[in-house]
Amino acid sequence: MKNRIKVFRAMNDLTQEALASEVGVTRQTILAIEKGKYDPSLDLAFKIARRFEVSIEEIFTYES
Amino acid sequence: MKRNTFYISASLIGILVACIFWWAVIYDRYPAAQIVTISVIAGAAAIYILRQKIDDTVIVDEMISKINEKSAMNTLQVLWVGFLALTISGFTMAMSIENPRVKEMMMRGAVSQFIFLASILLIYALFRIYYSGKYGGYEEDEESD
Question: Which of A14, B22, B97, B120 has its CA 20 to 30 A from that of B36?
Answer without folding.
Answer: B120
